[in-house]
């Protein structure tokens, strides 16, 4: 039985919707009442990929409302609150209680409610004498968004920026790390497992790992904890591995252009919470000329869609072919049905024929819903593919993809070809991405080439800040590599910080990009960790076992207990679908089959990531000029 | 998941103990911590709960009889018909009650009486509450639909079985009858050929004649039986088909209703568009008048100036 993060979360949410009562075999609790669900924005994002409105209704939810919207009183109905434990929400709840908006309330907090807030709530209740309205208070530990059965996101935006910001205070960095630890703790509590933690040394990943370890230890001390009996039994059998990585470990993947279906939909069309919004193609609408705005279509893409599951990892041209094949098959089936039901030759109608006819008719009627379902699915993917094609043609994504692939494979690039690509079609951001890939792929970037590239980019009106940031990272890295520890003191303050967090990781990333060609560095590292063979490059990674004795994790016998069957890979600072796909391929091709869950602080498109990089670049230049002026 | 209710109550107790408030209030708070308030439901919710209980009872009833219904020989056709009728009645009453609720909620201008009944007195304009009621009605109808579709599936399975049964029975029927009727004349020939007696021959002739008659009768009856079986099969098919068609027609009716609603919506839009157009036309003519006026005034002004200062 593999870990399935989505099903586990659905179970937890359903139990919450049934007022935390045990759920019967039929999927609904016996004593159901008509309830109102109150959500905040974060929790709505959690629920929306899991359950639809009709599913909510199945569990007795008549209405779902946002906590910060104007709500009117509904007497006679219990309300289920599912919110983040933050002061604003507590205040809103206090106001609702005072007004007596609902008959009684069941409070569910997405993560652990801190004591001061609990006290605030209590004193508000005492003041307004509304204690009788509070039925239950729960901590749900559900602070993550399960997008698929093997993928989750903590939905914490801009983490990369917060962790790598040269102007950030220690306090801010700690807060960001604390948020990640809390989210990961939620994931583990929902899965009911205590994993063995591995991570590369240095950088945010280590900070998260050590804090998570401490937190799990603290929690496991208490007798009545979240990791209850059955999971302990399972854990003695085989515990999963939790691999933590930092985004700097492999920077290239986040900016690279992609050409497989699922990453492409995410990167180009902005797949969000398993939904993608596509503007309908202008030609097909025909009658109505667009009145200012294009008609928008929203599609849902999740594991209920067989085509999406089957072709998520295929390259785009193949997907287009596949759509065509499916369409042809569908047409054939329809023809078959038509022929069987209507094509009766004129002449003698025997008994057998009649009976056969009835049978055919019934079969046809029975198969119609399935056929229409298939038709809808095909339509959906045709729409998406058309939109993708438009974007690809407009931006010349295929060209960028090929150029980047070649660069990564060869480790160098033709200057003329690069400049040609930059001066060619495409958006400025695409060109910046190409330039960053160029920077990361070549070990010793000739300064002349770089200047030429920068000049070309400036001429194209691109924002150079991200490029500057990456260049700085790399140049620092080269300096440090030559001068090693001695030069550390000479560097500016912020550079020191940067070094500590990311420089070494970037070297690794560059090297990995160079050596491996196709397979991502992350995938190889995870493979190494799961095999746990001695002597591999991952042996230097930090090893933490929350169940083991304190401080004594370095025991080689415990260390090499692998190979592991299950792993949870977590990317601090934003992940993407390309990595998820790589990990799933690894999981399915290995023998015996493995299960790898993939998570990240948020699912980032390259554009969003570029935004963060550019912000960092700007802050960095501001820092430099400040430092220089001080000198 | 972790229950923090007790923790919360402890904090309340501590806070109450610390705070300086009068004894009366303290007592009230403590009692509210311990006692559970009895819930008072409005008639609307009470009715809804009743309907829900009914639906659940029906579901249990169907599940209980499901095995008997589906297995051959456990139930006579008559009992099956009774069961179907009973379920049909049940569904009808449930539907009626749900409709009553629905009308009470969605009536254009609810009377004072219905408002009092559903507990919405003095809360006109409370959209959240209305939405909540709609949700309740929707949940109930969905439940009912779920149960009826379950029963429909059961019935369809039963029909399928009967159809399957009727086919092989017919195929078997023909050869057995043939076997029965054919071997009879065989012993009649050689068996009685040895007796050369005239009387015996006469008797034999009679016998043969009789036998022929029976045989003819037999054949006729067999033909009739076959025809009856065929008719029965056809009737069964027809019922199955009509059942199928009725469900399709129901779906179509729903679609038509939807179309109608959309058409109504479209008309309102067209109306709105018309008024907008009219407004535009008005504005246009206003503008024209203004322009003409302006020119006239200007011409007059020029004439005036020309006249004033030669």
Explained architecture:
The complex is a heterodimer of chains A (631) and B (310). With 631 residues, chain A is an alpha/beta fold. Among the domains of chain A are: 137 residues, Sec1/Munc18 (SM) protein, domain 1 (Rossmann fold), CATH 3.40.50.2060; 190 residues, Rossmann fold (3-Layer(aba) Sandwich), CATH 3.40.50.1910. Chain A contains 25 helices and 14 strands. In chain A, α4 links the parallel β3 and β4. In chain A, α14 runs antiparallel to α15 and α18 runs parallel beside α20. The termini of chain A are far apart. Among the domains of chain B are: 30 residues; 145 residues. About 8% of the residues of chain B have low confidence. Classes of the chains: A alpha/beta (631), B mainly alpha (310). Chains A and B meet through α1, α3, β2, α5 and β5 of A and β1, α1, α2, α3 and α6 of B. β5 of chain A pairs antiparallel with β1 of chain B. Chain A: GO terms for molecular function: syntaxin binding. Chain A: It holds the Pfam family Sec1. Chain A: Belongs to the STXBP/unc-18/SEC1 family. Chain A: One of its GO terms (cellular component) is Golgi membrane.
């Amino acid at each position: 039985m593999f870990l399935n993060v989505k099903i586990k979360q659905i179970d937890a949410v359903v139990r919450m919707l049934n007022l935390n009562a045990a759920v019967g075999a039929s999927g609904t609790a016996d004593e159901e009442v008509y309830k109102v669900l109150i959500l905040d924005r974060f929790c709505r994002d959690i629920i929306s990929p899991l359950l639809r409105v009709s599913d909510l209704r199945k569990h007795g939810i008549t209405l779902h409302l946002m906590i910060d919207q104007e709500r009117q009183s509904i007497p006679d109905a219990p309300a289920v609150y599912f919110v983040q434990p933050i002061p604003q929400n507590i205040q809103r709840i206090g106001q609702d209680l005072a007004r007596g908006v609902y008959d009684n309330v069941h409070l569910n907090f997405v993560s652990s409610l801190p004591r001061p807030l609990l006290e605030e709530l209590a004193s508000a209740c005492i003041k307004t004498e509304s204690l009788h309205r509070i039925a239950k208070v729960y901590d749900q530990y559900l602070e993550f968004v399960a997008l698929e059965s093997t993928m989750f996101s903590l939905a914490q935006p801009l983490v990369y920026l917060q962790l790598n910001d040269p102007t950030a205070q220690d306090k801010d960095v700690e807060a960001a790390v604390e948020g990640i630890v809390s989210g990961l703790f939620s994931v583990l509590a929902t899965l009911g497992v205590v994993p063995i933690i591995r991570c590369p040394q240095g950088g945010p990943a280590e900070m998260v790992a050590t804090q998570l370890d401490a937190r799990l230890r603290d929690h496991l001390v208490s007798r009545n904890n979240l990791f209850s009996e059955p999971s302990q039994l399972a854990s003695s059998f085989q515990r999963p591995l939790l691999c933590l990585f930092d985004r700097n470990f492999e920077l290239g993947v986040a900016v690279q252009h992609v050409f497989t279906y699922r990453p492409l939909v995410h990167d180009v069309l902005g797949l969000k919470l398993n939904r993608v919004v596509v503007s309908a193609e202008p030609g097909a609408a025909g009658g109505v000329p667009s009145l200012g705005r294009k008609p928008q279509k929203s599609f849902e893409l999740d594991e209920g869609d067989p085509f999406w599951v089957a072709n998520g990892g295929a390259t785009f041209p193949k997907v287009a072919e596949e759509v065509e094949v499916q369409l042809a098959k569908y047409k054939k089936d329809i023809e078959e049905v038509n022929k069987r039901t209507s094509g009766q030759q004129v002449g003698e109608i025997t008994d057998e024929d009649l009976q056969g006819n009835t049978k055919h008719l019934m079969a046809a009627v029975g198969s119609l819903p399935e056929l229409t379902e298939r038709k809808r699915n095909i339509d959906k993917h045709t729409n998406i593919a058309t939109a993708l094609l438009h974007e690809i043609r407009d931006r010349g994504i295929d060209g960028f993809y090929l150029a980047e692939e070649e660069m990564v494979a060869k480790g160098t690039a033709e200057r003329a070809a690069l400049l040609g690509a930059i001066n060619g079609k495409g958006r400025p951001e695409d060109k910046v991405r190409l330039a960053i890939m160029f920077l990361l792929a070549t070990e010793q970037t000739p300064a002349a080439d770089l200047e030429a590239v920068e000049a070309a980019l400036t001429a194209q009106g691109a924002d150079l800040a991200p490029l500057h940031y990456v260049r700085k990272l790399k140049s620092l890295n080269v300096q440090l590599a030559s001068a090693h520890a001695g030069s550390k003191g000479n560097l500016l303050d912020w550079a020191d910080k940067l070094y500590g967090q990311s420089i070494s990781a970037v070297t690794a990333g560059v090297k990995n990009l160079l050596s491996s060609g196709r397979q991502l560095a992350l995938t190889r590292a995870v493979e190494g960790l799961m095999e746990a063979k001695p002597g591999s490059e991952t042996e230097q990674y930090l090893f933490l076992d929350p169940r083991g004795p304190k401080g004594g994790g370095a025991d080689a016998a415990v260390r090499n207990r692998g190979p592991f069957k299950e792993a949870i890979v977590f990317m601090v600072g934003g992940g993407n679908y390309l990595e998820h796909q790589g990990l799933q391929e690894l999981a399915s091709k290995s023998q015996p089959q493995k299960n790898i869950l993939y998570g990240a602080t948020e699912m980032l498109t390259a554009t969003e990531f570029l935004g963060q990089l550019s912000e960092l670049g700007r802050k960095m230049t501001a820092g430099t000029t400040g430092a220089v002026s001080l000198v | 998941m972790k229950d923090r209710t007790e923790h919360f109550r402890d904090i309340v107790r501590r806070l109450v103990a610390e705070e300086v408030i009068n004894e009366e209030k303290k007592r009230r708070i403590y009692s509210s911590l311990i006692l559970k308030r009895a819930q008072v439901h409005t008639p609307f919710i009470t009715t809804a709960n009743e309907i829900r209980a009914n639906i659940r009872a029906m579901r249990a009833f169907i599940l209980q009889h499901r095995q008997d219904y589906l297995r051959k020989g456990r139930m006579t056709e008559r009992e099956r018909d009774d069961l179907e009728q009973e379920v049909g009645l049940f569904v009808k009453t449930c539907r009626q009650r749900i409709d009553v609720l629905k009308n009470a909620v969605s009536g254009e201008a609810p009377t004072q009486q219905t408002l009092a009944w559903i507990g919405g007195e003095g809360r006109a304009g409370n959209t959240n509450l209305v939405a909540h009621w709609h949700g309740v009605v929707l949940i109930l109808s969905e439940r009912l639909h779920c149960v009826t579709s379950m029963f429909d599936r059961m019935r369809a399975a039963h029909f399928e079985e009967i159809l399957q049964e009727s086919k092989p029975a017919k195929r078997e029927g023909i050869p057995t009858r043939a076997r029965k009727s054919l071997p009879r004349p065989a012993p009649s020939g050689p068996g009685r050929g040895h007796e050369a007696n005239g009387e015996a021959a006469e008797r034999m002739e009679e016998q043969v004649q009789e036998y022929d008659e029976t045989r003819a009768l037999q054949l006729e009856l067999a033909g009739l039986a076959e025809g009856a079986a065929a008719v029965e099969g056809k009737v069964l098919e027809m019922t199955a088909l009509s059942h199928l068609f009725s469900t399709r027609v129901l779906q179509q009716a729903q679609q038509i209703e939807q179309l109608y609603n959309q058409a109504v919506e479209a008309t309102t839009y067209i109306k709105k568009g018309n008024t907008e157009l009219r407004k535009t036309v008005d504005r246009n003519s206003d503008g024209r008048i203004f322009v003409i006026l302006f020119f006239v005034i200007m011409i007059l002004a020029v004439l005036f100036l020309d006249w004033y200062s030669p």
